[in-house]
Design goal:
Layout lengths: L8 H13 L2 H8 L3 H15 L4 E4 L2 E4 L1 H29 L3 E8 H6 L1 H11 L3 E8 L2 H9 L5 E6 L5 E15 L9 H4 L5 H4 L4 E4 L3 H13 L6 E5 L2 H9 L5 E4 H4 L7 E4 L5 E9 L6 H12 L4
Parallel strand pairs: 3-4, 3-5, 7-8
Antiparallel strand pairs: 1-2, 5-11, 6-9, 6-10, 6-11
Length: 303
């Protein structure tokens, strides 16, 4: 046993440095210390161990056979100490921190509250900052610009992102209420036809340009068109217009929530859906809190 257990990290660091550089002067230069300090550290180490570790000469310093063995053990010890420090730093990273989330309104309204609640039950010292955007492309731009750590977007996305699928969101037709004279319980369950859908004037959200194009392309595949007769900025305005019989709309179920009781909801004659996922920038260096958030998010059944 070393006398009084007085081995010091500084002695091991000095030994490794002299061994790697082959001289006390070069080791001292690399460590930013005086040569006398390095010489004293090695001399004290040899004295405490009771063995010679280095052979000194005009050409420099060379490890003895035993010194070679002990130098390797010193490297192993220093490596373990570094691992301990890294582990402690990672633990500290989850004690405080922030996750910056970029998202569109529908996800912010109907998905994020539950995710954030569960996340903060597990990590109550971590905070979540939400930035809302109108378009998925704006979410992706925020990730690229470093304004957000993680973003909710439509899949597939660009190759510079790493992404995970969260859920599929069906598009539905939102139709005005039928007049009392036409209400029939049996007809309420009948599937919608393209002819019935295209008989209405279409109301669309002007901010949902990607969805509008997706719907138009889907109808065109079957030889139909549903031109936009009126545009609005808010989905709540759109739903109010549909509820008053001023037109029909085609939205994803998530986007349509909450749906007024008077508005009829029908599946499209041929299904159409969108895939919503979560993405991070492939090249970004992200804090551990982001991956803790991802772990919670991907473990929750959504929709």
């Amino acid at each position: 046993m070393v006398k009084g257990n007085q081995l010091k990290n500084s002695q091991l660091i000095a030994l490794v440095a002299v061994a790697e550089h082959g001289s006390f002067s070069e080791a001292a230069l690399q460590l930013g210390l005086a040569q006398s300090t390095v010489s004293h550290a090695i001399a004290t180490l040899e004295s405490e161990l009771g063995v010679v570790l280095l052979l000194r000469g005009r050409s420099g310093a060379v490890l003895t056979p035993l010194g070679t063995q002990i130098c390797q053990q010193a490297k192993d010890i220093l490596s373990l100490l570094e691992n301990i420090q890294q582990t402690a730093k990672q633990a500290q990273g989850l004690q405080t921190g922030q996750v910056r989330v970029a998202t569109v309104r529908t996800v912010a309204t109907h998905v994020l509250p539950d995710v954030i609640s569960r996340f903060q039950q597990q990590h109550n010292n971590l905070s979540v900052e939400i930035s809302e955007y109108d378009l998925y492309t704006e979410v992706e731009d925020a990730l690229r610009a470093g304004r957000a750590d993680i973003g909710f977007t439509a899949l597939p996305t660009a190759s510079d992102f790493q992404s995970w699928e969260l859920f599929r969101d069906e598009f539905v037709a939102l139709l005005p209420p039928l007049p009392p004279s036409e209400k029939d319980p049996e007809k309420a369950t009948e599937p919608l036809t393209w002819e019935q859908l295209t008989s209405y004037s279409r109301i669309a959200n002007q901010r949902s340009s990607l969805h509008n194009i997706l719907v138009e392309d889907h109808l065109a595949r079957f030889g139909y068109a549903l031109p936009i007769g009126r545009t609005v900025r808010e989905d709540s305005t759109l739903m109010g217009l549909v509820a008053k019989g001023l037109g029909a709309a085609v939205l994803s179920r998530l986007q349509a929530k909450p749906i007024p009781p008077s508005v009829r909801v029908k599946s499209l004659p041929t299904p159409l859906d969108r895939t919503v996922g979560v993405a991070i920038l492939e090249s970004a260096v992200l804090p551990r809190a982001v991956f803790a958030f991802l772990d919670v998010l991907l473990a929750i059944p959504l929709l």
